[in-house]
Amino acid sequence: MSYVIAKGFSFSASHQLPGLPDGHQCGRLHGHNYTVEVVFGADELVDPGFVTDFGNLAPLKAYLSTNFDHRHLNDVLQEPPTSEHLAAHLADWVVENLEPSLTGHLIRVRVSETESTWAEYTPDRLR
Q: 58-67 vs 83-93: helix axis angle to the nearest 10?
């Protein structure tokens, strides 16, 4: 793909990771101020020169706000609520629910729990 854009979103949520050794800090109930970055690409631009209009990503913001913000992620996700699983879940949601109405295609989703850590997921069609 020749052109790439990205947009960031944020939400706050709690989680607790199962299956960790006793005393592991992530096994305790805790929360993060998550950031989510979605990256889209296209070979050609559409008028007036967009991969896709950033305004067309508003449904993702609404999805995050309704389903994840100030929620306990263990109650939201079917998998353990790691950043990796969250990135995959959001990528799948974008491909299924948002991408059909966009002119660009999802390249990846990046989820950060802190300023210094992140997990990234690339949809299957691009791997």
A: 130
